[in-house]
């Protein structure tokens, strides 16, 4: 029986990005128990815990796509298999974007009653797109740590990867702080959310000329 670890560090009124990191790290660990892109997905969080539900699904998409990207770079991959995998990556990219938009909708609803101050400013990115970067960082950290501790690698390789890992961990600390500050600013009306749809065109039969000309 596979043991799945859950994150219990959430409080609806005081949600810190450190809890997001814990959830992402635990999901990535759970994924690597089987370590197969075709393994079934089960979300341990119900929609009653909507934020955790969305975060878990988002990071799962990122984790599977990370491994898709590894596989498609195999030098001896069969071209037909590579084409199938490319289609899966395209679909995954669309799923990733959709999940970011779901997350932003969650935050828009959460802060809908906040009185925005007259001098409030807009951020360069929405909370969900910042969380998207945090999700990817968790994957970079996991796999860089693997390389920094890989017994079969040379000492120089491990040392170089450890230096990169240190930078990634510092980057995560900074981004975690920035997300907390952004959410606090939105909650107090010092900043306001304005969300744009990504308008991806390549997956749309009506917008990609290579598709609609067919």
Task: Write structural notes for this entry.
By secondary structure, the chain is mainly alpha-helical. It contains 6 helices and 2 strands, in the order αααβααβα. Strands 1-2 form a two-stranded parallel ribbon. Helix 2 (50-72) runs antiparallel to helix 3 (79-110), helix 2 packs across helix 4 (127-148) and helix 4 packs antiparallel against helix 5. The radius of gyration is 19 Å and the shape is globular. Residues 1-13 have low confidence and may be disordered.
Brief digest:
This protein has helices at 17-34, 50-72, 79-110, 127-148, 155-187, 209-212; strands at residues 121-122, 191-192. The chain is mainly alpha-helical and 214 residues long.
Cα-to-Cα separation, first versus last residue:
49 Å
Count of helical regions: 6
Low-confidence stretches: 1-13
Derived structural class: mainly alpha
Radius of gyration, Cα only, in angstroms? 19 Å
Q: What is the helical fraction, as a range of percent?
A: 55-70%
Major sheet: 2 strands, parallel
Name the helix and strand elements from N-terminus to C-terminus, one letter apiece: HHHEHHEH
Shape: globular
Q: Which strands sit side by side, in order, in the main sheet?
A: 1-2
| Strand residue content | under 5%
Count of DSSP strands: 2
What's the rounded overall pLDDT mean?
Answer: 90
